[in-house]
Amino acid sequence: MPNPMKTLLPLAAGLVLGTWFAKRPVPPQARTLCPPAGQAGIRRQMEQLKREYEKQDRMRRDFTANVSHELKTPLTSISGYAEIIREGMVKSEDVGRFAGKIYEEAQRLITLVEDILNLSHLDEGAPGQERRQGIDLYALCERAVASLAEAARQRGIAISLTGSRQRVDGAEKLLAEIIFNLCDNAIKYNQENGHVAVSVTREGDRVVLTVQDTGIGIPPGETDRVFERFYRVDKSHSKEIGGTGLGLSIVKHAAAYHDAKIQLDSQLGRGTRVRVLFPLSQREAQP
């Protein structure tokens, strides 16, 4: 009897290496393993696997290119400022300002690397060693709003928090990342004299985090793309807005880790509302 592995392994290897084609004839040995009626089904499954592999490969190449660009930009700035100082081309009274620029770019690099590591851990389904526990989501929102209050004030944005104390089961650091990134985006992409409203409520067996802004909004047809890595709604102002372009991708993966659903509604020029629906804490769900 023919060995199924010896027949199927070359096909799988060809699929991974990109040398397998949909119209490639089924080897004679495989016909003894699968009747003609089932061979079409095998072909369809392998075609689907090949398309998925190609999609993942494109995403990997795009991610690598984007990471390279995002790393190179601050590194080029750091190198340029340091070279000017080294060559003595800066007045003594301006050294502090140049050093400040180097520090800012270094912090940007650190944030980018941390975001990439966070995404890597989330992709692997192992976001650190933090134990899941009952977390007061409202308390985390209070911390996020307090930490972003000055950034909001500098941009002329009012930020408020309403709702009630609700608990969810999860990793505190990841939950804090979700809240911070949503609020940070709502501030950065807001309009002059705008407002960011954060709320925590309970709807049935769900705890709902809502972040609503009066910002620039998202063009129709692009709402699904905002959770892609390095995607930016306003690319022309990405440098002055700041950030790594990974915040909402982290939100998406962190929400999935907590079995939470994300709802996004946006109107161009009028603002965006993001709702994250978490399962109620098991302790709270008990009658």
From TrEMBL:
Key word rRNA processing present: no
Keywords: ATP-binding, Cell membrane, Coiled coil, Kinase, Membrane, Nucleotide-binding, Phosphoprotein, Transferase, Two-component regulatory system
Domain Histidine kinase: 66-282
Compartment(s) where it occurs, according to its Swiss-Prot or TrEMBL record: Cell membrane
Coiled coil spans: 39-66
Any GO molecular function: ATP binding
Domain of life: Bacteria
Any one GO CC term of the record: plasma membrane
InterPro entries given in the database record: BphY/WalK/GraS-like (IPR050351), HATPase_C_sf (IPR036890), HATPase_dom (IPR003594), His_kinase_dom (IPR005467), HisK_dim/P_dom (IPR003661), HisK_dim/P_sf (IPR036097), Sig_transdc_His_kin-like_C (IPR004358)
Any GO BP annotation: cellular response to phosphate starvation
Reaction catalyzed: ATP + protein L-histidine = ADP + protein N-phospho-L-histidine
EC number: 2.7.13.3
This protein's record includes keyword Cytoplasm: no
Protein name: histidine kinase
Organism: Evtepia gabavorous
